[in-house]
Design a protein that fits this description.
Blueprint lengths: L2 H20 L21 H6 L8 H13 L6 H18 L3 H16 L10 H13 L7 H11 L4 H10 L1 H11 L6 H17 L2 H10 L1 H16 L9 H13 L8 H11 L6
Helix pairs in contact: 3-5, 4-5, 4-6, 5-7, 6-7, 6-9, 7-10, 10-12, 10-13, 12-13, 12-14
C-alpha cells in the first residue's frame, strides 16, 4: 500500500470511528502489531530509548507527553528533533494517532513559550504537517474536533515560525482557505481558517505582508470576503469582531494594489450592490 493510499485509508478509519462513536458502538481497529506499553521515568531521552519510532501506540505518545510536561531541565535539541520527527511522520504519513501527536506538539510548544527550552529546534516542518492535516480533513465530516485542535495548535506556534510558514508555504495556506471558505463548511470552522489570516496580517513584516496580500488577491475576493460578509449577516457577528477586523486589515493592504480589472473583484463589486448574494 502506497503512503498516499495508507494515509487516505486512515483518514477514512478516523471518520468511521467518529460515526460509530456517535452511535454508541464499541469496537477496536488494529492496523498493525503495537509495542507493549513501557514503564519508564519522566526523563524524555530515556523514554525515547525504549521506543520504536515507527510503531507507537496511544500509550507511548502519552508517555512522551508526560515526560515533556514533567521535565524541569533543559532538553537536548536532538531529543526534541526526534520527538518532532515522530509527530510529523504520524501527521503526514500514517495518521494513526493524530490527537496524541498533536498533544505532544502542544506540550513542546508550551515549553518553548515558557522559555524552558534553551535551544529551539526547527518547528516549521511540524507546523506544516498540521497545515497538511487541516487541508486533508477539510471535506470529511465528524472530525470537527480534530480540525479545531489543529487550528488552535498552529496558532500557538511562535510568530517567527508562522511568518516562515506564510512565506515558504504560501500555496498551502491559499489551498487551505480555498477548501475551508466554502458554504459546505460550517461557519465556526470557516472562521478558524479566517483566524489564521488574522494572525498572519498582525505579525508579518510590512514588506512580507504586502507580498502576501498581493499574491493572494484572488482568494481574498473569491473566498474570504464572501465568508466574512456571510458571517456579518448572522446574529453572532456582534459577539465576534475577528472576521471584520481581518477584512479591515486586508482592505488597508489592498489600497496599494490595482485590482480594478480583476474578475473576482468585479464579482464582489456586483455583490456590494446586491448584498443578498452574500447570504
Amino acid at each position: 500500500m502506497s503512503t498516499g493510499t495508507k494515509f487516505f485509508f486512515n483518514i477514512c478509519v478516523l471518520e468511521e470511528f467518529f460515526l460509530k462513536k456517535d452511535s454508541g458502538e464499541r469496537f477496536l481497529i488494529i492496523l498493525r502489531a503495537m509495542p507493549e506499553d513501557i514503564a519508564v521515568g519522566p526523563d524524555l531521552e530515556r523514554v525515547l530509548e525504549h521506543l520504536d519510532d515507527f510503531a507507537l501506540n496511544e500509550a507511548n505518545y502519552k508517555t512522551i507527553q508526560d515526560a515533556l510536561e514533567k521535565s524541569n531541565k533543559n532538553i537536548n535539541v536532538t531529543v526534541l528533533e526526534r520527538v518532532l520527527d515522530i509527530c510529523v511522520r504520524d501527521l503526514k504519513e500514517d495518521m494513526k494517532n493524530p490527537f496524541q501527536a498533536l498533544n505532544v506538539l502542544s506540550a513542546l510548544l508550551n515549553k518553548v513559550k515558557t522559555g524552558s527550552i534553551h535551544e529551539i529546534p526547527n518547528l516549521v516542518p511540524s507546523a506544516n504537517a498540521i497545515l497538511h492535516i487541516i487541508k486533508t480533513t477539510a471535506l470529511f465530516n465528524k472530525v470537527e474536533d480534530l480540525k479545531v485542535l489543529c487550528f488552535e495548535i498552529i496558532l500557538s506556534y511562535p510568530d517567527n515560525v508562522l511568518i516562515t510558514l506564510a512565506v515558504d508555504h504560501y500555496i498551502e495556506i491559499i489551498e487551505m482557505l480555498n477548501l475551508y471558505c466554502h458554504q459546505r463548511i460550517p461557519m465556526p470552522i470557516r472562521l478558524q481558517a479566517i483566524n489564521i489570516i488574522n494572525k498572519l496580517l498582525k505579525i508579518l513584516p510590512p514588506d512580507k505582508k504586502a507580498t502576501f496580500v498581493t499574491e493572494g488577491i484572488e482568494i481574498w475576493f473569491s473566498k474570504v470576503v464572501p465568508t466574512v460578509m456571510a458571517f456579518a449577516s448572522s446574529t453572532t457577528a456582534i459577539k465576534n469582531t475577528m472576521p471584520i477586523d481581518t477584512l479591515e486589515m486586508l482592505t488597508e493592504e489592498l489600497i496599494a494594489v490595482d485590482y480594478s480589472d480583476n474578475p473576482t473583484w468585479l464579482v464582489v463589486l456586483e455583490c456590494i450592490y446586491t448584498p443578498q448574494k452574500y447570504v
